[in-house]
């Protein structure tokens, strides 16, 4: 049985012009021609075309494809082994590429999407994602964590500047309050504690008062959080914890 050039082009997903070119350079010469001189391809020709297209898919130039196919010292089984080796290597390469793309997509979708230069401009020497892996391990399966990541991924550099400016302003006011000897149970301290809760709720995830109370305990028990808040003013971490508890009590009473 033989096939026309148009049929073969349809089978193989190539153009008629490509088949004409392969014929012209001797890479795939059809076994027959009809009385009108039109090309006719046999099953053997289709098998050779399949191997040509395989090597082309792997990036081999046509002259190397011809050399591989026409090597008299290579038997069909050797061709199959060679194709298997090349295909396995291609799969491994594509898997690595796919993994890299997935990581890039995840990085774009989740977390703070700023260049290193922009991060330094916004946060200075502080790394806002220094403890991201730990946070993901502790809270990664919670809706609050997922929501914080979704929101963070949408923020621009200007958004982060505004958020950071609010944090700095709050810290200065709270430090001044502690320095002035205000009690954690006082209205001013509770108002700043409420502002702290609303800041997290506005930009990251909704924080009920009971959750905020747990955060207050963590700000003292975790040395890293304690150092962060105490850097604003000595003793501020404990003061904030107590103010958060007092604020939660007045809102849940």
TrEMBL record:
It comes from Streptomyces cupreus. Residues 77-104 form a coiled coil. It comes from the Bacteria. Residues 1-71 form the HTH merR-type domain. This is MerR family transcriptional regulator. Signal peptide: none annotated. PANTHER family: HTH-TYPE TRANSCRIPTIONAL ACTIVATOR MTA, REDOX-CYCLING DRUG-SENSING TRANSCRIPTIONAL ACTIVATOR SOXR. Pfam families: MerR_1, TipAS. InterPro entries: DNA-bd_dom_put_sf, MerR-type_HTH_dom, MerR_fam, TipA-like_antibiotic-bd, TipAS_dom. Gene3D superfamilies: 1.10.1660.10, Antibiotic binding domain of TipA-like multidrug resistance regulators (1.10.490.50). One of its GO terms (molecular function) is DNA-binding transcription factor activity. Keywords: Activator, Coiled coil, DNA-binding, Transcription, Transcription regulation.
